[in-house]
Design a protein that fits this description.
Layout: H1 2-13, H2 18-25, H3 29-41, H4 57-67, E1 71-75, H5 82-100, E2 106-109, H6 113-122, E3 134-137, H7 151-161, E4 165-167, H8 178-186, H9 188-198, E5 202-206, H10 224-232, E6 237-239, E7 242-244, H11 253-256, H12 264-267, E8 272-276, H13 283-292, E9 297-301, H14 302-318
Parallel strand pairs: 1-9, 2-3, 2-5, 3-4, 5-8, 8-9
Antiparallel strand pairs: 6-7
Helix pairs in contact: 1-3, 2-3, 4-14, 5-6, 6-7, 13-14
């Protein structure tokens, strides 16, 4: 009983993850998971679920209805300041992944702030007991963009959290010409990672317009001419650096051919593609991604989804 209390204290009050606690108590991580479950069963830990989580069910059903999603998680965020919304949505996405993940699955990871927040939240969860997890980088490196936001860093971090194996792509994600992409794809190692990415069971995707924030995203090969072309073509969002307009159409074939990542078309063949995004990532980026159809699940916040539903209903009314 004393050890159970210690483990519960370290996990719930000191916010340590299971791997850290396992080293202190000198047991395996799977034993820590069982001890946390036992602590709840013994009444050492009591968890209260607020009934406000039910308030967004109608929005979740509307998302599934309008965009053919398998699932949707809409987080009530009226009581949160804007800076906290990404964290709350990231936590909801982490909980969702933890609820569906199974042993021996492959998880693909893209890049961006929302994916970062989700993976950061995984550290504090009572993780499902799994083995044989593989985590695959879905896009190459993006120049001088913050390391914490890049796919290789996020994939490696998630594999560590899940005691899995990471498959990293040692190549740039966006290059100066399509011939270079073709040559990189022919490399045995890079080609193998891309193939693993096409065959993951779950893909974690951000949807945003981060490329417009030059202080955050610094990709040398994304030129001013490229930015002008994306604006001209009405780019509202990107996922794995695949740029699309409000209707989900790829904006520029010439730019798309310079990206070394899984394509939006290839994502449609993956069993479960989870999009994580908030109004801070822009509503248009999320709406365009939904209309493209590569998502199976969306995790977002109440205010954002209300706007998405409003815009989609208005669009359908005007086109009927």
């Amino acid at each position: 009983m004393r050890t159970l209390k210690k483990v519960a204290h370290l996990y719930y009050e000191k916010n340590m993850n299971q791997k850290e606690i396992a080293k202190i108590v000198d047991v395996s991580r799977s034993q820590i998971s069982r001890m946390l479950t036992e602590a709840k069963n013994e009444g050492i830990v009591k968890i209260t679920i607020l009934d406000t989580v039910d308030s967004c069910e109608h929005l979740e059903e509307s998302l599934k209805k309008y965009f053919g999603l398998k699932d949707a998680i809409v987080v009530p965020t009226t009581s949160y300041i804007p800076d906290m919304i990404r964290q709350v949505v990231g936590q909801a996405a982490a909980n969702y992944l933890n609820s569906i993940i199974k042993s021996n699955q492959k998880i693909g990871v893209s890049w961006g702030i929302s994916v970062y927040e989700m993976i950061k939240s995984m550290k504090s969860l009572n993780l499902a007991e799994t083995t044989g997890i593989e985590v695959v980088q879905l896009i190459g490196g993006l120049g001088q963009t913050s390391t914490t936001l890049q796919s290789f860093s996020l994939a490696n971090e998630l594999s560590n959290i899940l005691d899995g194996q990471s498959h990293l792509m040692h190549a740039p994600g966006f290059v100066s010409n399509s011939n270079l992409v073709d040559n990189l794809k022919k490399d045995k190692e890079i080609g193998a990672i891309l193939e693993k990415g096409r065959n993951v069971d779950i893909a974690l995707m951000g949807l945003d317009a981060l490329w417009k924030h030059r202080s955050l995203v610094q990709v040398d090969n994304l030129t001013e001419n490229d930015l002008d072309l994306l604006e001209e073509k009405g780019a509202v969002g990107q996922s794995c650096f695949r740029f699309y307009d409000i209707n989900g159409n790829i904006c520029s074939k010439s730019i798309d051919e310079r990206v070394l990542s899984i394509s939006l078309a290839e994502l449609k063949d993956i069993e479960t593609v989870i999009g994580i995004a908030t109004s801070l990532d822009t509503t248009e980026a999320i709406l365009g991604g939904l209309r493209n159809g590569f998502l199976d699940v969306l995790v977002s916040d109440e205010k954002t989804v209300e706007e998405i539903i409003f815009q989609q209903e208005d669009f359908l009314e005007q086109n009927n």
